Amino acid sequence: MAKMWAGRFAKETDSKVDDFNTSLPFDCRLYEEDIQGSLAHVAMLEKQGIVTTKDAQDIQEGLKSILKDINEGKLPFGQGFEDIHMFVEETLTNRIGDAGKRLHTGRSRNDQVALDMRLYVKKEIKEIQALILDFMKSLTAMARVNLETYIPGYTHLQRAQPITIAHWMMAYANMLKRDIRRLQNTYDLMNECPLGCGALATTTYPIDRNYTSDLLGFTQPVDNSLDGVSDRDYCIELCSDLSILMMHLSRFSEEIIAWCSLEFHYIELDDAFSTGSSIMPQKKNPDICELIRGKTGRVYGSLMTSLTMLKGLPLAYNKDMQEDKEAVFDAIDTVKQCLVVVKPMFDTMTILKENCEYACLHGYINATDCADYLTRKGLPFRDAYHVVGSLVGYCNKNHMALNELSLEQFKEFNEAFDKDVYQALDLKTCVEMRKVLGGPSQNEVVRQIQMIERFINERCS
Ligand code: ARG
């Protein structure tokens, strides 16, 4: 097929170059954005008197028929096109003749591709935010019914202090809230229209960049044409946001993997969301969580690809920038796949309340509370800490929990102990005493849930 730039060249391109150069196999997914951008561009060309109304109408009808045919599967992308932009333009010219050749007046593929990517990333940010919100709804709903499901909280993966599953869930809900806000920040920063930047230095035609920017839903045109066609910082930001989101999902997955092992056994995944082994009949594996953890690396990879792709590029456009697409597409696809499956997996898992509570009875997770108790009785905290350290050592040797000591035994360690110590060491008391802002007490977690619910409602309205 003759290239649109064939005039300058005495030879056909080598087919190996064509194969190497083409981005159509992956940028074909930008067809809607490409057509949307062209429709706005031609509307502006007509308004400015740069093309006739007749040509503009033919172009618009032609573009719409292409969109319809692609959507209905009647127009395969085929082979031999350099990219989606050439595919749409050449198909248009085949369909409507010379008018099709006027579409590209006052425009370059450089501002065209910059526009298509921005439109696409904006759309995907919205979709990803909606998926995160869905998962947050599940977290808050599940938290509401687990306000009294006690589990040990951990540091160094050693039992530390008692919390509730609800408190734990709200930790993840807060991380996801920031993920949504980070994406929103990326969206707001990139919400400027590069159309009209041309190849690098705008154009000599009297185009109206504000008009196309408005038509396409941007807040304003990009203010400098070199910047508009040459930066992909928003791709880096998106990959960074998605990397952080995946990091959160991966930590969540890691905990679920641990919790459904027999060693913890705090939860049981639904059969529909677990897998078996080909050899060990007893196995029930948390593959979904392992895959989320594993796929996190792919998204980090996209971040590295886009950072490295841009670092040495002189202004303005360079073909290196074609490499932004597969990185960004893969990051988006991966994140969406993970979010789509993590929510129903979470919704259908069973929390084994008794096992969670049983784990709280071992490991001296009320030791801090014991020290706090003595402190309330007048001991300096450091002394109280020391007394309880000896108590724990004693209990450990004798295979006892703190609450199993008699009052006499307590008193041997310190006279300040009294019979109210048992109440102070009770699991529920230990949690309820932590009513400080951010803590695990029931009322406080309800407040945290309400904060997240308010955020969800504001974003959904
Ligand atoms: N396929 C190209 C890309 O993705 C489109 C822009 C091509 N522009 C150019 N001057 N070769 O970046």
Topology, element by element:
Layout: H1 15-21, H2 24-27, H3 31-47, H4 53-71, H5 84-96, H6 98-101, H7 109-144, E1 150-155, E2 158-164, H8 165-190, E3 192-193, H9 209-215, E4 220-221, H10 225-230, H11 233-259, E5 267-268, H12 287-311, H13 324-348, E6 350-351, H14 353-360, H15 367-376, H16 381-397, H17 407-413, H18 421-425, H19 427-432, H20 442-460
Helix pairs in contact: 3-4, 3-7, 3-9, 4-5, 7-8, 7-13, 7-20, 8-11, 8-20, 11-12, 11-13, 12-13, 15-16
Summarize this, please?
The protein has 461 residues and is mainly alpha-helical. The protein has helices at residues 15-21, 24-27, 31-47, 53-71, 84-96, 98-101, 109-144, 165-190, 209-215, 225-230, 233-259, 287-311, 324-348, 353-360, 367-376, 381-397, 407-413, 421-425, 427-432, 442-460; strands at 150-155, 158-164, 192-193, 220-221, 267-268, 350-351. Helix 7 runs antiparallel to helix 8 (165-190).
| Unreliable residue runs | none
What overall geometry do the principal axes of the alpha carbons give?
A: elongated
The computed structural class is mainly alpha
Order of strands, main sheet, comes to 1-2
Radius of gyration: 30 Å
Largest sheet: 2 strands, antiparallel
Order of helices and strands: HHHHHHHEEHEHEHHEHHEHHHHHHH
- Annotation, overall tally of beta strands: 6
Bound molecules: arginine
Query: Helicity, in percent?
Result: 55-70%
Q: Give the N-to-C terminal Cα separation.
A: 51 Å
Tally the helices. Answer: 20
